[in-house]
Amino acid sequence: MFKSLRQCTSGVVDLGVVLMIGIAFAALMVIAFIIWTLRNQLITTTTSTETNQSVANITGGFDNAVNLILVAITVFILAIAISALLMLRGR
Fold first, then answer.
1. Using one digit for the tens of pLDDT, what is the confidence trace for 46-87?
2. What is the maximal distance between C-alpha atoms in the chain?
3. What secondary structure letter does DSSP report for 44?
4. How confident is the model at residue 12 (pLDDT cuts 50, 70, 90)?
């Protein structure tokens, strides 16, 4: 009825893909922290308003891009986990 996991090779989840996504997730978090720290150092009360607005636009856009990529990576990891559970269930 159910095949052994050793015999079932059609639904193997590649661990390398999960590790690469995890490394990308960690790298994006580190880059976001660096940009956040730079924003706090660049936007001060002594610089002009135009400079502060342009720096805020650049770092805000980067923050939005990082958040979007992190959501996409999280959804992909969840899809891999669901497919692994379905494979183990035998569907």
1. 778 887 788 778 778 888 888 888 888 888 888 887 877 777
2. 73
3. -
4. low
CA dist 89 and 91 (Å) reads 6
Which among 38, 28, 8, 21 is positioned nearest to 77, based on CA atoms? 21
Between 5 and 34, the higher pLDDT residue? 34
Tokens of 38: 């730079």
pTM above threshold 0.85: no
Looking at residue 80, its pLDDT comes to: 80
Angle at 72 between CA 67 and CA 77, to 5 degrees: 125
72 burial level (CB within 10 Å; 0-12, 13-18, 19+): exposed
